[in-house]
Amino acid sequence: MLKVAGPSQILVITGLGIKDILLSQKKWIFIGQKCIKVDISPVNYTFDVQAMSAEKLPFVLPAVFTIGPRVGDDASLLKYAKLVSAHDKLSNHVKELVMGVIEGETRVLAASMTMEEIFKGTKQFKQEVFDKVQLELDQFGLHIYNANVKQLVDVPGYEYFSYLGQKTQMEAANQAKVDVSEAKMKGAIGAKEREGLTLQNAAKIDAESKIMSIRRQGEGNKEEIKVKTEVQIFKNQRDAEVEQANAELAKKKAVWSQSAKMAEVEADKAVSIREATLQMEVEKKNALTRTEKLRAQDLSKANVNYDIQVQEANADLYKKQKAAEAILFEQQKTAEAQRASADADLYARQRAAEADLYSKMKEAEGMAAVAEAQGFYLGNLLKQVGGNYSALRDYLMIHGGTFKDIAKLNAEAVRGMQPKINIWTGANGSGVGDGVSGSGGAMKEIAGLYGMLPPLLETVNDQTGMLPPSWLATLPTDSNKNSKV
């Protein structure tokens, strides 16, 4: 199927046999391909951009931008077809996209300028906004065909331009008042000046009239005296002119003579000066020649010395490089030997650690086996004693010699104590029980209780030093304490 686009349209074709996107005015569309017509005519976008100047004064910038895809640029048309053509140009998506770019760049630019700079440089501000917005729209394949920035408008609550207009109006009104006052002042001063000039001219004319009348009366007398005086003056002038002419002639002769002598002297001096100048030039040329000769000699010597020093430095550098290489090689070999020794030592330590670990593992296995055998042994013993833990404990203590060790510890504990042992008997030399054998059982118990009192009281006296009360008992003296039966 043949598809043909309109004058302000372009075909966007994708599908079978097309790698990316194909743009064309007319094209055969085959099965497996998809074609849409994209309108590339520009569209007007009207915005009221709110921005803020460097003084943090908000304002509204009404603007109208005519924006559309860049015709004739395949790369821009491809971007437009991929990114924007899927939406209607008058849709909110495209409008918000364009408005976001314009608002962002306008606010950034306005934040770097004062309100006065924005107001006075509207043309420059418009051009900078145009350039920055165009730079951002290039990535969408859009081009600004026309941009119209209207007059700035105040934001409600920030009447900057209103106050600025009122200020300009008041300044003009005040200037007009000043101009009117100056005109009135100049009119009053001019009228007074005219009146004064009129009076001055009238008085001047009267005085001149009186002077003319007096002057005419004296002019007749003056004419006679003047004629006589002029004749005498003319005669004196003629004599003075003759004398002056003679004096000037003599002066000119002296000047001419002086000039002639000075010219001769100047000619001689000029010749001498010229000779001295030429001699000086010759000396300069000779000095320059000698200087260049010495310079050439010194330069050649310096070049030779430089070449020699360069050769020596290169030789010294070569020797130092070889020495450094030898030292580096020796250090590398030493490091390799140390590394090999360290590897061997590490291997030996690893083997020793493995052997130690193996022996400890075997020891642990032996201890585990012993513990298992002891557990089996104790289990059998407990089973043999019928589950009596006390009997098992006594057997283990006897078998392990625990009672023997306890006896030794007790003997060691009481050794050196030297205890006092007293044996008490009855009056007839028999035991306590024998003295009351013929009595009943109750008397025997009472006799036993009274037989326990003497040793108890003596023990308390030996340990604490306390004596029993005399009404209870009296302890025997030291001579009778150790009596034995």
Arithmetic mean of pLDDT: 76
- What's the alpha carbon Rg, rounded to whole Å? 72 Å
Output the number of helix runs. Answer: 10
Low-pLDDT residue intervals, each spanning 5 or more residues = 427-439
Strand residues, percent: 5-15%
- Which percent range fits the helix content? 55-70%
Largest sheet: 4 strands, antiparallel
Global shape: elongated
Order of SSEs: EEEEEEEHHHHEEHHHHHH
- The N- to C-terminal Cα distance equals 151 Å
* Count of strand segments: 9
Structural class by secondary-structure content: alpha+beta
Subcellular location: Cell membrane; Membrane, Caveola
GO cellular component, one term: caveola
Pfam families: Band_7
InterPro entries: Band_7, Band_7/SPFH_dom_sf, Flotillin_fam
Keyword list:
485 residues, alpha+beta, 3-stranded antiparallel sheet, 69% helix, elongated, Flotillin-like, Band_7
Write structural notes for this entry.
This protein is an alpha+beta fold and 485 residues long. Helices cover 69% and strands 11% of the residues. The strands form three sheets. Strands 6, 7, 8 and 9 form a four-stranded antiparallel β-sheet that branches. Strands 3-2-5 form a three-stranded antiparallel β-sheet, covered by helices on one side. Strands 1-4 form a two-stranded antiparallel ribbon. The protein is elongated.
